[in-house]
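Intended use. Records such as the Alkaline shock protein 23 entry shown here are meant for training and evaluating sequence-to-structure methods. They are not intended to support clinical decisions.
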Amino acid sequence: MNGELKGGSQLKNIIKNSLGEIEISREVIAVLAGNAAMECYGLVGMVSRKMSDGLTELLGKENLHKGVEVKIDEDMLTVDLHIIVQYGTKIHEVANNVIEKVNFILENILGFRPDRTNVIIHGVRTK
């Protein structure tokens, strides 16, 4: 990664350069990852990563970040995406496409890619 990751209650990615520091919050990473995932063929939608939010309810466009968990531990960035795939698609291909798209978008927009990108499939539905 180009930046230094710092821990604490407000985990953020901090990129240092000659002009100063750029802080990127976990929520920004989650929004970008959620929007990138939704562009993939075979994805019906995102679901909440929290049990209390109702796992089977699809999230609207304004809440896609709730289906993405961003973890920063010991200078390692992990992105978990909680999705529903379309019936009749090859699940492993959809998951691989989501991982590739999210990594590509984060690297191009933020300048770094996650160390790990995990896809958790909560169900299969028709569109």
